[in-house]
Task: structure prediction
Amino acid sequence: MKRQEILDLLYIDLVSTMGCTDVGAIGFAAAKAGSLLKDELKEIKLHLSDLLYKNSLRVGIPGTYNSGVKKAVLLGYLLKNPEKKLAVFQDASKKELKELVKLEENIPFNISYEKKDDPLYIDLTLSSEQSEVRVLMLYSYDNIDSVYVDNKLIYKNEHSVSSNRNSGTQLPTIDEIYNFVLAEDETLDKLVYYAEINYQTALLELKAKDIELPDITPENIHNGAPFVRKYILNACNLRMKGAAVPVVGVAGSGNLGITDLTAVYILGKMLNAEPLKIKRSLALAVLISTYIKRKMTLLTTICGSALAGGSGTSAATAFLCDGNIEQIKSAVNMLIAANAGTLCDGAKQSCAFKLAFSAENGVVVGKMALDGEKFQSENGINKVNVEDTIQNIADINNYALETARDKILEII
Result:
């Protein structure tokens, strides 16, 4: 794969978000509809794919410290700032939050969901006495496919592309990713800026004794694992419970961005690694995670962010300690063996635990790979070739877990 194609892949899904990406997309749709609606809002109708419904039901809405899909719609409607896209909620002030409480009591809200071939589907209609606006979002979190005002099509995106990215998407091999990372320098500078954003979010509300990071060496890098867990847990927990905190997401997930960028960044700090080494490690983590997520459907039944984030952290751990390509592959393979059974039961506060422990595991298996641990033969879904392992877990997620998905929806 060509260098520029890998560079484009590195940055294409690095997106600034405010709050959970799933409700951020709903807020974005509502902001667009609200900017076009005449007169005061009287009714809301929202139809979602089943997986987006699952991910939106229990997660906190930024600034409210409370959950509720209706809150996401109403806050987006009040803000009317679709130009902010997935950062739509960052403009919320006490004024909008106060109005939100009043509207929530008085505006009828009809929500429904169904299975969709493409897992990202938002069909939102806002109605007033004078007009009706319908916004249809498909395929990606920030893609408005079409807009109707009073049943007349006023916008159509002719370039919408399915988010079933596992089918026919060209991806680099892990060897190509590794060679790309070794050759880059200034092109990776933005990653440090993005990592600093997520790191600062992770610092919020931590006590002074928890902020100080110890010095570690490649020989005892596993001693840094509890600190990685603590930082990831705090940042993800703030985001999931509805704190208004900025995060740079990776591959469609703010939590994955927290895991990849924050874990690697603080490992680099604890190791006192050279800036270039940190940049390249960040790039490796993001590209490994993106590789795994792009093999899977955009919304998953297996927790894709925990699986990909832990894998990216494991690869970067080995790389930071001068591990070779075979040790990096072994680290990813062992992480998948440990975390493949983690399920996605919707976005909510418990996601923080999944991501935090996955990142901690990533550091541990990275060290194990450096110490020579690896698969000598096939082990269930884990194969000697890690790319075969990744394809196996992606196939299970994409094609074999429909019953599990239905049962999770029934439970929640």
Observations:
- Residues 275-295 form the longest helix (21 residues).
- The chain has two domains: 17-156, 165-411.
